[in-house]
User: Fold this.
Amino acid sequence: MVKKLLVLLILAVLVLAGCGQAKKETGIKVAMVTDVGGVNDQSFNQSAWEGLQRAEKELGVTVNYVESKQDADYKPNMETLLDAKNDLILGIGFKMGEALSESAANNPEQKYAGIDCFFDAPTPNLVGILFKEQEPSFLVGYIAGKMTKTNKVGFVGGMDFFVIHKFHYGFMAGVKYANPECEILVQYADSFTDAAKGKAIANQMYKNGADIVYHAAGGVGDGVIEAAKEQNKYAIGVDRDQNDLAPDNVITSAMKRVDNAIFNLTQTLVNGQFPGGSNVVYGLKEGGVDIAPSSSKHVPAEILEEVEKIKAQIIAGEIIPPTNAEEFKNFK
Assistant:
């Protein structure tokens, strides 16, 4: 009996090993060009890389990245990945849209995808991946409006562009939906990397009476969270669950599941169903955005129950969070 079990165990191990070997032999290569924040930005780029790492583990593709230190690096970095004969090249960040469009037009046999990029007329080898950032921002805004003790909260944006406006105005609408009398301080850092500036802006907001500050600013947000720790105030993270950066201070995060989007896109590539020539949008309905799982550590259960109801209303189209100043003005 023992020998029989041993033989079965060895066979099972061999089968599993064979499956693992099959994955390694897919031969598909996927690589990404980071935005200027770098692959370890604790936010947007890091989430993208985590999605590729998951694809490597579960789908058996070979993955890689090159980091951009400045905007001028985008095109040469894409050329580097083109020369390396990757099956799919990902550009992480809306500022890469032009470089991606140009590269896709010049290399029709090469597949490209842009995270946060909308393409008016994408070529068959190009896909745009977008998110409804206003939806989780509305939810964390609601939490901020309910939890503030000073009736004043803050928002720190990175660059003053349309993508960040979705975070900005979605958050403001959520705050006002929860607490119409709450004051909202807003400042843009004109950077996604200057943590010192983020810290200075947040410190000023806390000094001016805000007790919760939400950032949508990449590496700038590291400074916001550092200020929250030093001032013993609250912060709200972005893109990934950032509670690990300050467990006592980050009460929730507006998660943008770039990792899931990249994994799903890579899976379509492996399955021969790459959605080239289109723009794919992820919202609450598609599981592409949400609030962080760690929210229950600091947010009262009754508020989280209200948030779940609001999620259902957003998915049903009963609440439509605004994406810009005009929509916010008309939001009811």
Observations:
- The chain is about 45% helix and 20% strand.
- The first helix runs from residue 2 to 24.
- The two ends are 72 Å apart (CA to CA).
